[in-house]
Specification:
It comes from Paractinoplanes atraurantiacus. The chain is mainly α. It has a single domain, classed as Winged helix-like DNA-binding domain superfamily/Winged helix DNA-binding domain (Arc Repressor Mutant, subunit A, Orthogonal Bundle), CATH 1.10.10. Helix content is about 65%, strand content about 10%. It has a two-stranded antiparallel ribbon.
Length: about 130
């Protein structure tokens, strides 16, 4: 059932991402930068569960589109700090809002107590990453 739900969520999110002109991995990368700059591309890849070599073209595209920055770390110029630009934050917030609205619509058929229990279990499982 978890696999079927995962597929359903992906199918629900794909048109939202397409409407915003962003791929799933680009959205995941922006989500990984939401709390502030990340010290290296490798650290971001590890944090979001992506292969570093496959993430680089995604980051190149995000940078080209003005959604992220890659700046030299003043403490170590060999290291690149990755961060979201205001345009990246705006896009990320819009995509997240649309995805959350779709999730709310999906959960609307469940009773409130069942929704609350389901979300509590998901949060507990997520903490065990």
């Amino acid at each position: 059932m978890v696999v079927r739900l995962g597929r359903r969520l992906i199918a629900m999110e794909e048109p939202i991402l397409a409407d915003h002109g962003i791929s799933m991995w680009a959205y995941v990368a922006l989500s990984g930068l939401e709390d502030g700059p990340t010290r290296t591309q490798a650290a971001l890849a590890s944090a979001i569960g992506a292969d570093k070599t496959r993430l680089i073209p995604v980051l190149d595209d995000l940078q080209r589109r003005g959604l992220i920055t890659r700046e030299a770390d003043p403490a170590d110029r060999r290291v690149r700090l990755l961060g979201m630009t205001p345009a990246g934050r705006k896009l990320h917030a819009a995509v997240r809002a649309d995805i959350r609205a779709a999730e709310e619509a999906l959960l609307a058929s469940a009773a409130e107590k069942d929704r609350a229990a389901f979300l509590a279990v998901l949060e507990a499982l997520d903490q065990g990453r």
